[in-house]
Design goal:
- This protein is of the alpha/beta class and about 300 residues long.
- It folds into two domains: about 190 residues, no CATH class; about 50 residues, no CATH class.
- It contains eleven helices and five strands; from the N terminus they run αααβαααββαβαααβα.
- Strands 1-2-3-4-5 form a five-stranded mixed β-sheet, with helices on both faces.
- Strand 2 and strand 3 form a beta hairpin.
- Helix 4 runs antiparallel to helix 6.
- The longest helix has 16 residues.
- The termini are far apart.
- About 35% of the residues are buried.
């Protein structure tokens, strides 16, 4: 039997290697959409098909339009969509204490955020004023939700598409640090809503196929999870800063769920582009800077008494 110290070291070493082994962005998103972009950079030959595959919910047929892609972002250059100012203000006026201690931030942020959570009128007013009068720093103490990062962000003159990609996960993400209910795909759509202008907005969930039932169909649990996220109660909790009409419109923009394998099959992309796993080489040891305490200094002999 290995000594306990070696067992611990082996576990830690494997954990370090295993981080990101099934990373969705690197094993699914980048290989698939990189291939599609090489096939047709304009997106005209594949975007409509992706939207139709995901349109698993009742509603009108999605329309990608005829305009070419003007912006296409995914790993390693994912789009960062700022949280809506109306949500940030709502949080300042209604937030409750987070479960994670780390969300309080450092000493000064912790002190001010505690006052916000305690609904101190002066602090809340100061926070809202800063929010409304200057550029928003995502790390500022009065910002309680950072930018959302959809797995894929596509933009033309006619449509905006946000795609949330999953691989190893079994259920949708349904909360954020300061909101106990905030479904992730709704969050992406919410962040894109105010900047879409007159363009059509679509949200797509892409997951791993349920191979026990079908070679391309997504698991039923994902469809059920999406439907729960679109209930009137869930929409109200995820989008508390929106009027009921806007909540309904954002919910309607969520097309549904499809699988990576279904997209490959429909667009005749070999499934081999979907990478099984990613193993990063071990990081090279960084040169350690010598601290001032470790620098040898000449000894100073004490002066002899006169």
């Amino acid at each position: 039997m290995l000594p306990q110290s070696l067992v611990v070291q082996a576990v830690v070493s494997w954990a370090e290697v295993n981080v990101g082994i099934y990373d969705t962005s690197r094993t699914r998103v980048a290989p698939l959409f990189g291939r599609l972009q090489c096939f047709d950079p304009s997106g005209r030959l594949w975007l409509q098909a992706v939207l139709e595959l995901a349109a698993s919910r009742p509603g009108s047929r999605p329309d990608a339009g005829k305009a070419p892609l003007r912006l296409a972002r995914w790993w390693p250059r994912q789009a960062r969509l700022p949280a809506p100012p109306s949500l940030l203000q709502w949080l300042l006026e209604n937030v409750k204490e987070p479960e994670a201690v780390a969300e309080w931030g450092r000493k000064e942020s912790r002190r001010r955020r505690r006052r916000v959570v305690d609904h101190d009128a002066t602090t809340v007013e100061q926070a809202v004023d800063r929010l409304n009068t200057g550029p928003t720093n995502a790390r500022a103490w009065y910002v309680l939700e950072g930018p959302s990062q959809p797995s894929v962000y596509l933009e033309t003159d006619e449509v905006v598409v946000v795609i949330d990609g999953k691989r190893a996960e079994l259920t949708p993400d349904a909360s954020t640090d300061w909101m106990p209910v905030r479904h992730q795909l709704l969050r992406h759509l919410d962040s894109a809503w105010d900047t879409r202008r007159e363009r059509r907005l679509y949200g797509v969930l892409m997951v791993e196929a349920d191979r026990e039932i079908s070679r391309s169909e997504p698991p039923a649990a994902w469809r059920e999870g999406l439907e729960r996220s679109l209930s009137e109660e869930a929409l109200g909790q995820s989008l508390p800063h929106r009027a009921p009409e806007e909540r309904a419109s954002i919910g309607a923009a969520l097309l549904g769920v499809t699988s990576w394998q279904a997209v490959c099959d429909e667009l005749q992309v070999p499934r081999q582009v979907l990478i099984p796993e990613v193993l990063d080489p071990p990081a090279e040891p960084r040169a350690r800077r010598r601290s001032s305490a470790s620098i040898e200094r000449p000894l100073i002999e004490p002066a002899e008494p006169a």
